[in-house]
Amino acid sequence: MKQLPLFAAVLLAATAVRAETLTGAGSTFAYPIYSKWSDEYHKVKPDLQINYQSIGSGGGIRQFTEKTVDFGATDGPMTDEQIQKAGGKVLHLPTVMGADIPVFNVAGVDELRFDGAALAAIFLGKITNWNDPALAKLNPGVKLPDLAITVVHRSDGSGTTYCWVDYLSKVSPAWEKTVGRGTSVNWPVGLGGKGNEGVSGLVQQTPGAVGYVELIYALQNKMSFGSVRNKSGKFLKASIAGVTAAAAGAARHMPKDYRVSITDAPGPNSYPISTFTWLLVYPRNTAGKGAELKGFLRWMLKDGQAMAPALGYAPLPATVKAMVAKTIETIQ
Amino acid sequence: MTRAAGERFGDRIFRLSLAAAAGLILLAALALAVQLSWASRATWAQFGPAFLWGRTWDPVGGSFGALPFLYGTAVTSALALLIAVPLGVGSAVFLTELAPRRLADALGFAIELLAAVPSVILGLMGVFILVPAVRAVEPWLTQTLGFLPFFRGAPYGVGFLAAGLILALMILPYITTVAREVLRTVPPPLKEGMYALGATRWEVVRGVSLPYARSGIFGACFLALGRALGETMAVTMVIGNAPDISASLFAPGYSMAAVIANELAEAAGDAHLSALIAVGLALLAVTVVINGLARLMIYRLEGRA
Predict the structure, then answer these.
(1) How far apart are CA A291 and CA A45, in angstroms?
(2) A84 - beta bridge partners?
(3) CB contact under 8 A, B262 and A157
(4) B54 and chain A: CB distance < 8 Å anywhere?
C-alpha cells in the first residue's frame, strides 16, 4: 500500500518525459478557441501537450521574436520591421475570424444603422449629437433625440481596437491621417473602458454613448447592436456567416503571406468590420517541433474549424482553408 | 576560549546575514531603477526631459509625452488625501479619545477589514455604485458650485472625481489605523494634566494628543499617498482613461499606473514599450521624491517637538 504513491509518481514522471510540449503565447481574443483546441487535440494525441498563454498580441510577437515560444498568436499582422527582427522568415496562418460591432445607448432606439463615414465622424468628434443630419439620413423613420454623443473606446491595447481603427482608416482618409491604425491609438474624443466589459458597461450606463465591442462578447451577453453598411451598400448586422463571407470576399486578393486586413471587404454579404487572427510560426523548426506543429495545424484545419462557431468565432471559408493547408505542408 | 570564539563566529555570521538581507533590499531597489532607466533609454534619447511635459500620447505616430498621466496621478491622489485625511484623523481621534471601548474595538476591526479589500473589488464597486452616484450628483454640483472651474462639464460619472473618491476610500483605513496606533501612544499623564487644569476634551485633543502624534500622523498620510500614487486597478476602472488635462474634476483623465497596465501587454512597437517603461520610471521617481519629502518633514517636526 505504501508503495502506491511512489509507483504513481514514477508513472507520472515517465509520462512527463515522453510527452512533447508545444508552447505558444499571444492574442487574448483567440484564447478561448486555442485553449479548446489544445484540450481537444490532447485527446486525439495524448503524448502532445500544447500550452498557450494569453498575454496579448504584442507580448506574443515579442516572445515569438525572442524564440521563447514555439508559436505566437496575434490579432494584427507583424510589420515588415518586426519580421526582420524575427529573422526575416515568419509564417502568418489565419485560424479563425472575429468582428467588431457598434453598441449604443439612446433611449427609445433599439435599431440603428451606421456607415463608415458616420462612424469615423463620430469617433473623430465631428458628429457630436444624435440628431445630426448624417445619422438621420441613414436612419429614416427613427426618431433620434437631441442628445450629446459620448464616444467610448477600449483603454487597454487590443486587437479589437486594431480591427475597429483599421476599418475607420479604410473608410475615412481623415481618420487615417490624424489617428491611424494600432492596438492603442491617440483617440480624438471619448472615454476609455478596460476590456469589452468596461466598454459595454460604460455604454450601458451613459445616456448617449456609443462604443465598439467584440462580436463574441455581444453574442454571449445578448446585447443589441447596430448594423453597418458594407462596400456593396448593404446594411448588415454582424453575424458569423457575415464574417466568413468577408474573408471569402477578401480571399480573391489574398497575398501569399496572409497578412491582409479583411475590413471593408467586397461582397454583398461581407460584414465590413471583420478580422483574421493569426498563428505565427517559423518555417523551419528544431527537430521534432516542426512535425508536431504540422500535425496540430492539419488537425486544426480539418477538425478544429468546426468548433469555432460554438465559441462565437467565424470559421475560415473553404478557399482560405485550401490555401492555408498548402502553407502548412511547407513547415519543417 | 573555544566557546567564546565560537560565539563570536556565530555573531559574525548573524551580523553578516542580516546585513546581506538589508543590502539585498537596497540592491533590489537600485536594480529596479537601473533596469527601468535602461529599458526606457530610447524614449529619453528621443524626447529628453520634454517627455515629462509633453502632452501628446500617440502610439501610432510614435509621439509620447507623460504630462497627462503625471497630472492625473497628482490630481486624483491630492483629491484622495483632501478627503481621506480629515476623515481618517477624525475617526482615529474618535476611536482613541471618545468612543466607548467596545465600539472602538468593533469599528477598528471594521476599518482594518476595509484595508484588506482587494482593489479590483473596490473598482467594481466604483463602477456599479460610485460612478452612477457621481453621475447623478454632478449636475447638482455644477448648479451650486459651477462658478468654480472644478465643477463644470458633461456629467460622465467617470473621471478625476470618481477616481479621487475611490482612492480616498482605499487609503482611509491606512490613515485611520496608523493614526489610531500613534494616538494610543500619547502618555496618559500628559492628557490627565490637561484635564486637571480644566481643559475640555477638544482642548486636550488639539493641545496634547494631536501635537504629540503629529509626526506619526504625517507618516500615515504619506504612506497613504504612496498607495494612492501607485494604485492601478481601481483607478483605471473609474477614471475614464483619456489622456487629457482638464481643470474640471468631472473630466475623464488618466494616471501613470493605469496607462502602463492598460497598454503594456499589447505594446508591439519598441518605441511604445520604451515610453511606457519611461512612465514607470517617472512614477518610481515621484514616489521616491514624495517619500523623501515625507522623511524630511517628519525629521523637522520631530526636531521641533
Answers:
(1) 13
(2) none
(3) yes
(4) no
Residue B285: how many other CB atoms lie within 10 Å: 13
Cell of B41: 533609454
- For residue A331, give every residue at least 6 positions away whose Cβ sits within 8 Å of its Cβ, in sequence order, or none: A91, A281, A283, A285, A290, A293, A294, A297
d(CA A198, CA B257): 17
SS3 label, residue A207: coil
What's the DSSP call for residue A148?
B
Q: Are A157 and B132 in contact (CB < 8 Å)?
A: no
Cross-chain Cβ contact A186/B59 below 8 Å: yes
Instruction: Give one DSSP letter per residue of B215-251, joined into a string.
Output: HHHHHHHHHHHHHHHH--HHHHHHS-------S-TTS
Residues of chain B contacting residue A168, judged by C-beta atoms under 8 Å apart: none
CA triplet B298, B299, B305: central angle to 5 degrees? Answer: 85
- pLDDT tens for chain A, 332 residues long, are 445 454 555 444 444 445 689 999 998 889 999 999 999 999 999 999 999 998 888 889 989 999 999 999 998 888 888 899 888 889 999 999 999 999 999 988 989 999 999 999 999 999 999 999 999 999 998 999 999 999 999 998 888 999 999 999 999 999 999 999 988 899 999 999 988 988 999 999 899 999 999 998 888 888 889 999 999 999 999 999 999 999 988 888 888 889 989 999 998 999 999 999 999 999 998 878 899 999 999 999 999 999 999 988 999 999 999 999 999 999 98
User: Alpha-carbon distance A96 to A76, whole Å?
Assistant: 13
Q: Which residues of B touch A184 (CB under 8 A)?
A: 59, 262-263, 266-267, 272
Three-state DSSP class for A79?
Answer: coil
Return d(Cα A48, Cα B73) in angstroms, integer: 48
Instruction: Please name the amino acid found at residue B76.
Output: T
Starting at the earlier edge strand, list the strands of the sheet with A227-229. Answer: A113-114, A227-229, A235-236
CA B84 to CA B97: how far, in whole Å?
19
Chain A hits for B261, CB-CB cut-off 8 Å, are 156
- Which chain B residue lies closest to A205 (C-alpha atoms)? B132
Q: Are B43 and B254 in contact (CB under 8 A)?
A: no
Residue A174: CB partners within 8 Å, gap ≥ 6?
A120, A124
DSSP single-letter state for residue B94? I
Nearest to B90, CA basis, from B74, B113, B76, B111? B111
What is the side-by-side strand order in the sheet with A274-281? A48-53, A20-26, A71-74, A274-281, A91-104, A209-214, A150-154, A191-193
- B162-193 b/e with 16+ CB inside 10 Å = b? bbbbbbbbbbbbbbbbbbbebbeebeeeebee
- Give the residue on B whose Cα is nearest the Cα of A76: B268
What angle is formed at CA A302 by the lines to CA A300 and CA A305, rounded to 5 degrees? 60
Which of B66, B60, B265 has the alpha carbon at shortest distance from A156? Answer: B265
Helix (H, G, I), strand (E, B) or coil at B107: helix
Mutation test of the interface with chain A: which of B233, B266, B270, B277, choosing the one with the most A Cβ atoms within 10 A?
Answer: B266
Residue A285 CA to residue A290 CA, distance in Å, equals: 5
The model carries a pTM of 0.86
Q: Which of B60, B127, B157 sits opposite A179 (nearest CB)?
A: B60
